């Protein structure tokens, strides 16, 4: 096939997924298998890849999906366990005592609680935990899903204790980083990663302040009783209070310590400060805003999980006891994610399911199923079991929680397995580096010099925008996150490409790489993995397209903000001290 047609062909699987989910409104359970099949056809017919190799990549994707599914299962199990124990009603009652204003609740839960969980666990965990909590407070399921996905953006770059920067760029830029250190631009790898983290905070900073106000206006416009942007914007003082409470520790830790825990520190400290202030009415709007009576909601806002605000809420236990499962989750996540503690290494080493060289193709392997390190098992499932004792749940009720969780996992399992299999075909379609795999594919008549599907699309975009690249660099990161469902994988996929683009356009490497990292974070709003996970926990299966359609608006806004900051930094000579 002519090289000029490859970018158009490469975009077919993404177009199929978008058309089916957003245009036709087909659920991901049906749409993603069709998109995967279209990707198989593109790989075999256009990229000329052997069918057994494409099958191996698909199997690898299914194995990778297991990790995500375990996280989703654990998050759902916590939700259902707390529902049957009365803990969720107690939390809901307590949150109403802080403020019955749902704008305030959206900030506390969706903005700050999510940031803390993202910093500790990552991998789609925050939205999967925060959205059900908002649902329990009386949010329409669709609104809860949209606001949690949008807010889970700026913390993602530093998610899972800095994994996107440390692992994502570390895997893709190994030789380039070593060359930069050898040239004297950086003292060592640690300084390189810290410099990227510092720069990314500047990329995110405007949206740290803009996003909470914008999204409150968004939900009051599209889900409020009076459908006005101004209802959300009226809470701007509280949003500013929350943003400052988050941003100060976020920036200090990134600039003084490194990229491991800025989001965790910002989320935890911000959550404590804002909850204390909100309970005392600091910056809280004088008027109380809610979504109104559920009977008057548009039917499209709801799913098959419902919490009613019409009944009188009552505390079924103490607030400490109700929140204890979440407190323990945060504590265990912190203890098992910090490099300075021995638990991280132990949990990464024990109970690892590893599959090597699938169908004998070198490097097509999976060792990501670390059963103890996955948040879905430790702490989610562990704490769910412990909660049975902590909340004194009858055995029959505990069994119902597990049964309900298993039932809701069916559509998520199909869609996630298909989407991750598609991702692996995308990644494995070209730009080969494993010499043994190259030899195997050459023996099968494959042109191993061909670029992968994502790289072909990115290079075409780069050629089209020319000197405006800083404005578009973040969208490549977002594309990577949309395709792969991970900021880390996006940085791995496009890190070297962004480095090369910086050299080609004579732009500061730090600025372009930071735009890539910020783009991968904002891409979490629209990535299929996160959307499917959130839809599952709030009962909106087969509604993924509607959510992507709504989160696409803040996604575009975020990219424009990052691009503007990139141009400002370049114009001021930022990063010159690290020039190669």
- Structural class of the helices, strands and pairings? mainly alpha
Helix content: over 70%
Taken as a percent bin, the fraction of beta residues is: under 5%
DSSP helical segment count: 25
| Terminal CA distance | 39 Å
> What is the approximate shape?
globular
Structural Rg = 23 Å
Please list the strands of the largest sheet in the order they lie side by side. 1-2
Mean pLDDT: 87
- In terms of quaternary structure, what is this? single chain
Q: Biggest sheet, open or closed, and with what strands and sense?
A: 2 strands, antiparallel
Contiguous low-pLDDT stretches (5 residues minimum) are: none
Provide a compact summary of the structure.
This protein is mostly helical and 580 residues long. The protein has 25 helices and 2 strands.
Q: Could you walk me through the main structural features you see in this protein, from its secondary elements to its overall organization?
A:
This protein is mostly helical and 580 residues long. 71% of the residues lie in helices and 2% in strands. It is built from 25 helices and two strands. It has a two-stranded antiparallel ribbon with strand order 1-2. Helix 4 (51-85) packs parallel to helix 24, helix 7 (125-136) runs antiparallel to helix 8 (141-151) and helix 11 runs parallel beside helix 23 (509-522). The radius of gyration is 23 Å and the shape is globular. The two termini are 39 Å apart. The model has no long low-confidence stretch (mean pLDDT 87).
